[in-house]
Amino acid sequence: MRKRPEPTLRARALQYLARREYSRAELAAKLRPYAKAEDEFEQVQPVDIDRILDDLAASGYLSDERAVTQLLHARRPRFGAQRIAHELLQKGISHELIEKALPALKEAELETAQGVWQKKYGALPRDAKEKARQMRFLQSRGFSMDVIFKVLRHDDEAQ
User: Fold this and answer.
1) pLDDT at residue 86 greater than cutoff 70
2) Which terminus of the chain, N or C, has less C-beta within 10 A?
3) Is the Cβ–Cβ distance between 91 and 67 less than 8 Å?
4) Per-residue pLDDT averaged across 132-144, rounded?
5) Using one digit for the tens of pLDDT, what is the confidence trace for 65-79?
6) Is the CATH number 1.10.10.10 carried by domain 1-62?
7) Any idea where the domains of the chain sit in the sequence?
8) Do domains 1-62 and 109-158 have the same CATH topology?
9) Measured between alpha carbons, how far is 109 from 137 in angstroms, rounded to an integer?
10) Model-level pTM greater than 0.85?
11) Domain 109-158: which topology?
């Protein structure tokens, strides 16, 4: 039985990018375990991975901007700006790109928080313990305290 040849780093990178968008840092971390030197005694140079990533970025296959857009689209309906910004940082997205994305996130954050709260609870808290629980839930989803207070106050005013 013939063994299939190992895919090249470039082929692996393209396979990953065919599934979803990755940031440059994420893709580099994914490729690092597969980077092997031709000679077993030779050290693998990170320059090899950087060169492949540069080529992919130049040909339009790799884009941090698209990775940000995809993550925002996937996370915005369920999470607040703080949590999404933290995830972007963890994925190696630059501070400049995160700063560009934050205004759009914060603009719709109150609506998103109200939707998340409505879906989870839908009823006003009966006591302080329940209110604290609802606030912790919204905080864990990455919503700021001022947005949380507006969500709970809005519902207080509605009734």
Assistant:
1) yes
2) N
3) yes
4) 96
5) 999 999 999 999 999
6) yes
7) 1-62, 109-158
8) yes
9) 15
10) no
11) Arc Repressor Mutant, subunit A (1.10.10)
